[in-house]
Write a structure and sequence with these properties.
single chain; 166 residues; mainly alpha; two-stranded antiparallel sheet; 2 strands; globular
Length: 166
């Protein structure tokens, strides 16, 4: 099920976070949704969540500005959220206790379990274009952009096939 409102809200939040227009706390307050759309949960936790710090409020500008590679990743996350493509990667929803147990097992295995899980996940599609599962879907989306990247007083670079997958 595609939840267009939740996807749009998250796409805007990621875009504004990457541009330094909102803080990490504002992203969580404004863009997080408990949507039934698996893309919303997966993209939030697999993308911008890693750019956020739970204890310090900041904007991704100045010394915290994103490097070009991460900006390209963020642009790809936004591009996916603006499509009506289903999220086709495996989705794992664990309880807090289950997550803590996996963290403990990962520590005891010196990271072996995490590396194994990452390899298994990567077998499902092209990791270079995540959250798209296939490069062809990503490239087709680039030929028909459905999202204007302009914002009052700011301008985000247009994503090209070379830049977004570099």
């Amino acid at each position: 099920m595609i939840d267009r409102d939740a996807r749009n809200r998250l796409a805007e939040g990621i875009r504004h976070l990457a541009m330094g227009l909102i803080t990490n706390f504002e992203l969580e307050e404004e863009a997080w949704s408990d949507s039934a759309d698996p893309a919303v949960h997966a993209v939030f936790l697999g993308g911008p969540w890693y750019l956020c710090h739970d204890l310090v409020r900041y904007r991704l500008s100045g010394k915290n500005k994103l490097c070009p590679a991460v900006r390209r990743d963020a642009a790809r996350w936004v591009l996916f959220l603006k499509t009506d493509l289903p999220y086709e990667w495996p989705v794992e929803r664990r309880s807090f206790a289950g997550t803590c147990g996996l963290v403990l097992l990962n520590l005891l295995s010196l990271g072996f379990l995490a590396r194994k899980a990452q390899r298994q996940f990567a077998r499902h599609g092209d990791m270079a274009v995540w959250p798209f599962i296939r490069r062809s879907d990503f490239e087709a989306t680039l030929t028909r952009p459905s999202y204007s990247a302009k914002s009052p007083g700011r301008r985000m670079q247009t994503v090209t096939a070379e830049a977004a997958s570099a």
